[in-house]
Write a structure and sequence with these properties.
Elements lengths: L1 H15 L10 H4 L7 E6 L2 E5 L5 H16 L3 E3 L2 E3 L1
Antiparallel strand pairs: 1-2, 3-4
Length: 83
């Protein structure tokens, strides 16, 4: 169940941060640190990301949106639901 929760969190973060460089060999050549967001899993349930926001208020709104998106996720395995 924990692995499934981590996968769903990763998917929510990828979508919310508009990060999609999985399996892209040209990532390094096309990455623009001035505008592209970055997401990485450090290990276990630890993630780190950097995203571009025009203001502190926009950043707070983005973080609240990420939190709300993950809170809406329904995670279930073998009939067991995780809330």
């Amino acid at each position: 169940m924990g692995d499934l929760a981590i996968q769903r969190l990763s998917q929510c973060l990828e979508k919310g941060l508009e990060v999609d460089y999985r399996d892209r060999a040209d990532f390094v050549e096309k990455f623009d640190p001035a505008k592209d967001n970055v997401l990485a899993r450090l290990g276990g349930d630890e993630f780190v990301f950097a995203c571009h926001c025009p203001s502190e208020a926009a950043c707070l709104e983005k973080m609240q949106g990420l939190q709300a998106a993950f809170a809406k996720e329904e995670i279930a395995l073998d009939g067991q639901r995780l809330s």
